[in-house]
Structures are given as structure tokens and as C-alpha cells.
């Protein structure tokens, strides 16, 4: 029942694990182990990767359930009997936006799945609040870590290397965010433009050829104006997902329906009719949980990947700190249903910094 080989112990951070068998459900495992299903879900979701989160039941790909250490019967009963904590909201059921202390680093993972295969890009991004003005607009600084991994490796093709190198010109990036946590503009176009000369020189020292020249021409056209940089950056999945304007009123029913736009194609906005829903109580791990689920309605141009008739789903789930109302982790996924499905996913998770000993 329990697996404690060294490889599995280290992978799960030395927690006990249960190997999920064919036909297992959350309820059946709960009965087998004699542990409340809510407690199994709570502990597993605290330590698992975002794709392995348990919602109503196990996901089909789940291999191991992460279990809490052995506890006394009294402590188990204390957890089971604990009453749910309500989410604390502001006036008109508004989810507060309190970014002033934000200076956090996140692990970011992009996954693109199609019939051609799976491409995964991973990086680290820091988000830091800088200031606010009298109109309640906030200035944030975004920095990207120097290491980018594509399918588990440092970029080793010219195109991937060029993309990674030219992206350096953007950082640090300063953006303007409104009072609802929605990204609305860039702030430091002049700084970005001023960095280009050095980056361009480094590119030409390392790469050469017609492809490189055309790539540089494209970058320079984009950098010509703040409007062009903003238009290009609006296809940045991290900025769009993280600064998604979730700090709004959720009504007495904790949900509402509203259109949401997201760039499934570069520099092309796709519109979704989305149900926005907040759980009235903190989840088993103590997070505020917000879900967005919807379907494609219109891209603004009447097409999407050339297949406007296909069903396209938008699903996002946010887990927020219950005290600071800041994002701890999130998962956003868009699926295009066809013979060979296309799936685009971004996973964002706060990097927990270990406290240094004095």
C-alpha cells in the first residue's frame, strides 16, 4: 500500500505516498486508509504539482497520492472536525487587491501540446510592486531569471537561442496595473529601447546569417514605439494570466459571467464567455480558490487557428494567499477540440524561500 523506496521518498519530499491503482477513487481510498477524503485531498494538494491537484476526484494521470505523516487519532479528529473558514471580502463582495508588499519569485512552466508533440518551456520570474498613484494605478517591475529551459535543456537551436537572447532587452520590465489587478500598459519603453544596442551587439558576436538579420529587423520594428512593444507583449502568457483582473466583486453568490479575452494566437485576441467563480470558504490547504471556465465566442476577426467552428475551452484556477490576497499558484489551460487536440497550458507557482539560520 505504502511506497517508501528512496527515489519516491525524495521525489515527494519524504512524505508517505499511496500508489493509485486502476479503479481507485478518492472515496474508495479514503475508506481503505481510514482517512477522511477531505483530509486526503487537503494534504495532497498542499505538496503536489499543479497538474496533480485533486478536485472532485483523482485525475486520470495521477500515479501517487501524497499522504501526511502518521498522526494520533485525536489530531486526525481535530482536522476532520475543523470548520471551514470563510473568505474575507471587501465592500460589494470585492476581492481586495493589496500588492504593496509583493516582491516574489515564481516558477513558470509553459506547455504546448499538439499532434506534432509536446514543447515545454520553464523559467523563473520575479514580480515586484514599486509604487501607486492617486488614481489607484500600480507600477510593477517584472524580472526574468537568466536560465530558460526548453524541453528540459538550455536552448540549443539558433531560433530558440535568438528568442531567449532578444527577450533579455525587455527586463527589467515595468508595467502599469489597474486597481483590479489587470495589466493595462508598459511604463519603461525608453529604457527597453536603450538596452537594445548592447543586446544586438552580443547577438551579432555570436550569430550570423540572413535569418539573424531578419530577426533583428523584426525586433527593431517592434521597439520603434511603445504601442508596438505593448501590442507584442500582449501575447505574453505570464503577464496576461498573472495580471488577469481577478480582484473584482463576486456578488452575493460568489460568481458572475463576463467575457474575457486571451491571446491564443500571437497578437490576436480570442474572446471567451467565462463563468468567474470564487469558493466562499478557504480550501483544504487554506487558499482562496477562484475558477474561470468558459468557451470561445469570437476572436474579433471571426476566426481562430482557421477553425472558428471548433470548440475551444478556457479554464483557469487561482490559489491566493488568504491574508495578502496574492497569487500563490495558478493554472491556465486552453483546449482546442479537434481530431488531434491542441492544448496550451501555463502553470505558475510561488517559489518558497527557505529562511536562513542566524
Short synopsis of the structure:
InterPro entries: LysM. The protein is α+β, with helices and mostly antiparallel strands and 358 residues long. The chain has 2 domains: 6-81, no CATH class; 91-350, Lipovitellin-phosvitin complex, beta-sheet shell regions.
How would you sum up this structure, described in words?
Residues 16-62 form the LysM domain. This is Peptidoglycan-binding protein LysM. It comes from Flavobacterium chungangense. The chain has two domains: 6-81, no CATH class; 91-350, Lipovitellin-phosvitin complex, beta-sheet shell regions (Roll), CATH 2.30.230. It is an alpha+beta fold and 358 residues long. The protein is globular. The protein contains nine helices and 14 strands. The protein starts with 5 loop residues before the first helix and ends in an 8-residue tail after the last strand. Strand 3 (103-114) and strand 4 form a beta hairpin. The strands form two sheets. Strands 3, 4, 5, 6, 7, 8, 9, 10, 11, 12, 13 and 14 form a twelve-stranded antiparallel sheet that branches. A two-stranded antiparallel sheet has the order 1-2.
Secondary-structure-derived class = alpha+beta
State the end-to-end CA separation.
41 Å
CATH topology of the largest domain: Lipovitellin-phosvitin complex, beta-sheet shell regions
**Roughly how many Å is the radius of gyration?**
22 Å
Strand content: 25-35%
CATH class of the largest domain: Mainly Beta
The helix/strand order is: HEHHEHEEEEHEEHHHHEEEEEE
The gross shape turns out to be: globular
Number of domains: 2
Total helical segments: 9
- What is the helical fraction, as a range of percent? 25-40%
Q: Round the mean pLDDT to the nearest integer and report it.
A: 84
CATH architecture label of the largest domain: Roll
**Largest pleated sheet:** 12 strands, antiparallel
The tally of beta strands, per DSSP, is 14
Amino acid at each position: 500500500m505504502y511506497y517508501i523506496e528512496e527515489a519516491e521518498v525524495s521525489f515527494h519530499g519524504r512524505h508517505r505516498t499511496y500508489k493509485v491503482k486502476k479503479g481507485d477513487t478518492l472515496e474508495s481510498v479514503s475508506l481503505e486508509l481510514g482517512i477522511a477524503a477531505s483530509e486526503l485531498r487537503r494534504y495532497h494538494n498542499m505538496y503536489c504539482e499543479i497538474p496533480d491537484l485533486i478536485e472532485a476526484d483523482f485525475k486520470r494521470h495521477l500515479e501517487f497520492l501524497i499522504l501526511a505523516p502518521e498522526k494520533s487519532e485525536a489530531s486526525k479528529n481535530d482536522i476532520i472536525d475543523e470548520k471551514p473558514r470563510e473568505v474575507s471580502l471587501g465592500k460589494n463582495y470585492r476581492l481586495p487587491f493589496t500588492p504593496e508588499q509583493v516582491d516574489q519569485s515564481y516558477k513558470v512552466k509553459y506547455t504546448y501540446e499538439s499532434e506534432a508533440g509536446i514543447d515545454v518551456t520553464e523559467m523563473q520570474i520575479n514580480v515586484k510592486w514599486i509604487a501607486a498613484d492617486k488614481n489607484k494605478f500600480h507600477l510593477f517591475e517584472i524580472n526574468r531569471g537568466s536560465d530558460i529551459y526548453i524541453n528540459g535543456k538550455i536552448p540549443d537551436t539558433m531560433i530558440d537561442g535568438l528568442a531567449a537572447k532578444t527577450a533579455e532587452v525587455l527586463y527589467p520590465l515595468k508595467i502599469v496595473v489597474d486597481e483590479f489587478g489587470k495589466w493595462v500598459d508598459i511604463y519603461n519603453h525608453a529604457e527597453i529601447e536603450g538596452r537594445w544596442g548592447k543586446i544586438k551587439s552580443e547577438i551579432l558576436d555570436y550569430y550570423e546569417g540572413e535569418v539573424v538579420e531578419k530577426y533583428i529587423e523584426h525586433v527593431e520594428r517592434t521597439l520603434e514605439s511603445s504601442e508596438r512593444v505593448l501590442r507584442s507583449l500582449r501575447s505574453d502568457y505570464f503577464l496576461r494570466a498573472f495580471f488577469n483582473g481577478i480582484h473584482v466583486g463576486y456578488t452575493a453568490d460568489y460568481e458572475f459571467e463576463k467575457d474575457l479575452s486571451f491571446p491564443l494566437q500571437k497578437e490576436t485576441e480570442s474572446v471567451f464567455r467565462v463563468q468567474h467563480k470564487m469558493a466562499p470558504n478557504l480550501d483544504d490547504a487554506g487558499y482562496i480558490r477562484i475558477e474561470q471556465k468558459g468557451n470561445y465566442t469570437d476572436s474579433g476577426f471571426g476566426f481562430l487557428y482557421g477553425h472558428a467552428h471548433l470548440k475551444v475551452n478556457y479554464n483557469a484556477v487561482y490559489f491566493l494567499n488568504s491574508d495578502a490576497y496574492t497569487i500563490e499558484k495558478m493554472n491556465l489551460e486552453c483546449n482546442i477540440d479537434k481530431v488531434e487536440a491542441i492544448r496550451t497550458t501555463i502553470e505558475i507557482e510561488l517559489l518558497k524561500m527557505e529562511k536562513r539560520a542566524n
